[in-house]
Specification:
With 103 residues, the protein is mainly β. The chain has one domain: Sandwich (Jelly Rolls), CATH 2.60.120. The chain is 6% helix and 47% strand. The strands form three sheets. The chain has a four-stranded antiparallel sheet, with no helix packed on it.
Length: 103
């Protein structure tokens, strides 16, 4: 579909990706590997078969415990066509303030 972008991301263990934020939302599907994603300071653990969403303009970064392949679908092409797409990489990694599902 011309209105969605589809991407594969390989994340290697031991490093955390740069913290980025962008307009538009993304749906992520974990194909293989284990790790976590930090969204607006909240940590979400994931493994094979998990699905999670990152909202528009939220700070997001990923870290893998084992080599991971993540598939992402986003609405970037629509926002680009409307000249509304924007993306930035933050200079400082976000702190983890809470963990999803933790009491």
């Amino acid at each position: 579909m011309a209105t969605f972008s589809c991407e594969m991301h390989r994340i290697y263990p031991g490093g955390r990706t740069a913290t980025r934020r962008k307009t538009g939302s993304s749906i992520w599907v974990v194909f293989r590997g284990r790790g976590h994603t930090v969204i607006r300071g909240e940590r979400f653990d994931w493994g094979p078969g998990d699905v999670f969403v990152t909202p528009s303009w939220a700070a997001v970064d990923h870290e893998a415990d084992a080599t991971a392949d993540l598939f992402a679908v986003s609405d970037r092409p629509v926002l680009q066509a409307l000249h509304l797409y924007r993306e930035e990489t933050l200079l400082v990694a976000q702190e983890i303030a809470e963990r999803f599902g933790a009491s």
